[in-house]
Amino acid sequence: MTELPLRPNVGACLFNREGLVLIARRADQPAGEAASGAWQLPQGGLDRGEDPEAAVLRELEEEIGTRNAVVLGRMAEWLDYDLPAHLVGKALGGKYRGQTQMWFALRFLGADGEIRLDADRHQEFDAWQWAPLASLPSIAVPFRRPIYERLARDFARYAVPA
């Protein structure tokens, strides 16, 4: 497992004008797992040579159908996680042991109607909602929980009405 690299990735904490963050439910989860870890923040792979800020806006457009947002801030460093052993070789195309992620805080400038989960032919999510930032750790799968705890702490300054 340690021979596999970490996949470069960007993630978005997209805040609305009320200071709530967008979470989305993965479309590929079995029905009984919808309540435990199927909800997450938008995120996606960073292409070789791609600027992370440009990548996070691209990922928003691909996953939720809009890039109508402005970057408020970003983490000071990359955050890493390893996949659980049973997912190594299966998840992330079987090429990575986990991900190294640059997380961004963004303010959504549009109306809720602009959010379209079917914008991309590979629809990743089947539902979305606005949630309090502090709830992130409780929605995360265990291997992502430390990152979501860090986001809840470090991005709290952005979880305010605009």
Automatic annotation (TrEMBL):
Residues 5-153 form the Nudix hydrolase domain. Keywords: Hydrolase. A motif (Nudix box) lies at residues 44-65. CDD domains: NUDIX_Ap4A_hydrolase_plant_like (cd03671). GO terms for molecular function: bis(5'-adenosyl)-pentaphosphatase activity; guanosine-3',5'-bis(diphosphate) 3'-diphosphatase activity. It is an enzyme of class 3 (hydrolase). Pfam families: NUDIX (PF00293). Its cofactor is a divalent metal cation; Mn(2+); Mg(2+). The keyword S-adenosyl-L-methionine does not apply. One of its GO terms (biological process) is nucleoside phosphate metabolic process. Its EC number is 3.6.1.-. Belongs to the Nudix hydrolase family. RppH subfamily. Accelerates the degradation of transcripts by removing pyrophosphate from the 5'-end of triphosphorylated RNA, leading to a more labile monophosphorylated state that can stimulate subsequent ribonuclease cleavage. PANTHER family: NUDIX HYDROLASE 26, CHLOROPLASTIC (PTHR11839:SF22), UDP/ADP-SUGAR PYROPHOSPHATASE (PTHR11839). This is RNA pyrophosphohydrolase. It comes from Muricoccus pecuniae.
